[in-house]
Write a structure and sequence with these properties.
With 114 residues, the chain is mainly alpha-helical. Helices cover 91% and strands 0% of the residues.
Length: 114
């Protein structure tokens, strides 16, 4: 393994670590939101347990990643629609959703590497 590959790995690990808090915040916010909607701490704890178990599987982690990204794409699409028109909404949603996806995926990779 060359020193260049090692350097890339270290850089990637640092990038992933810096975004792991962002991913964890989405996880906790989703569980809190579910607990608030059902007005029960028990529902919050059950959601925390279920989502934690779901995160450990590769398919479940990908599904949860999309659950975290879709609201951001919708919010950014609404901002684009307010600024311009339907094409602006699509551009904002796709580019913004892509940025959020890459950020959350790197945080997810770091947490799964632990």
């Amino acid at each position: 393994m060359s020193s260049r590959d090692v350097r890339r790995g270290v850089t990637r690990a640092g990038w992933n670590k810096s975004h792991s808090d962002w991913y964890s915040a989405h996880f906790v916010m989703l569980c809190v939101l579910i607990g608030v909607v059902f007005t029960s701490w028990w529902v919050f704890l059950v959601a925390l347990f279920i989502f934690s178990a779901l995160e450990t599987t590769s398919i479940g982690g990908k599904v949860m990643l999309w659950v975290y990204v879709i609201p951001w794409a919708m919010i950014l699409g609404a901002i684009g629609a307010a600024i311009g028109s339907i094409p602006a909404a699509c551009v904002f949603a796709i580019i913004g959703g892509g940025i959020v996806y890459v950020t959350l995926e790197s945080g997810r990779q770091y947490l799964h590497d632990l």
